[in-house]
């Protein structure tokens, strides 16, 4: 009798094992390896203690996490479809888990590549929405520099120089023009590395506000009307400090262009046009000798800034 019972138990166990193998054999293996960070609150306190947290971003499906880089973002790579996201601003990418996951589960990695630096983070799911990072600012210590031949100077660094020039005193007094009640003057021209920083102002003496349509930079012949082979080359600003589109009395801006040389027969013109069909157009001519008199920027001016864009 005991032998019969033992045989029945063995037969039942074998049948259940065969059924389990058939059932779970149909499940495809997950190609993404799942990692868990165990005992996070004690063994790895750096994840929850901000001063010690390194390269970990906590996410939850109820929280949108915004990763902010100190410079413009060129590329974002997300290693797995467990994380979704997009770039919502020049230097901000937002991410979120695709769905609910296990607490402390490793969701994947995210690589953020900027103008001159890159950073990589592990993305870890947390079941507590209050523990997830809603904003994660990337610090300088978390970024690794790389050589980008297309970017000679990050935009954040251009902004620092432009703000310092904006707050400096006027050194040029001979470059100016006036038309339609608008006076235009060039305050400063600085050369920094491979760029020219041109600081200019507009003054409106009329009671009609000036609506700026566009700012154009042209390299033209001095005697364009008499030239038989007149040629105009339009240049694109690399950076513009002031994004205001209208002003009532005064306007000041610092624009950045690539460093260039040109013959004495040509002149560099800043053309500011108004946002109307018959709008006012202001031209500021800059002679080559004025460009040659551009000052080299003194780094001590940066110490006078109340803030710096990192």
Give a topology summary.
Layout: H1 2-25, E1 35-36, H2 40-43, E2 56-59, E3 65-68, E4 73-78, E5 83-89, E6 92-97, E7 105-114, E8 117-125, E9 135-137, E10 144-145, H3 155-166, E11 176-179, E12 182-192, E13 195-204, E14 210-221, E15 233-235, E16 239-240, E17 246-247, E18 250-258, E19 266-274, E20 281-286, H4 288-292, E21 295-296
Shape: elongated
Indicate the mean pLDDT. Answer: 78
Radius of gyration: 31 Å
**Number of separate strands:** 21
What structural category characterises the helix and strand content?
Answer: mainly beta
Q: How much beta, percentage-wise? A: 35-45%
What's the helix-strand series? HEHEEEEEEEEEHEEEEEEEEEEHE
Low-confidence stretches: 20-53
Treating each run of at least 4 consecutive H or I residues as one helix, how many helices? 4
* Helix content range: 10-25%
- Main sheet characteristics: 6 strands, mixed
Task: Offer a concise description of the structure.
The chain is mainly beta and 310 residues long.
Keywords:
310 residues, 6-stranded mixed beta sheet
What report would you give on this structure?
With 310 residues, the protein is mainly beta. Helices cover 15% and strands 40% of the residues. The radius of gyration is 31 Å and the shape is elongated. The N and C termini lie far apart (83 Å).
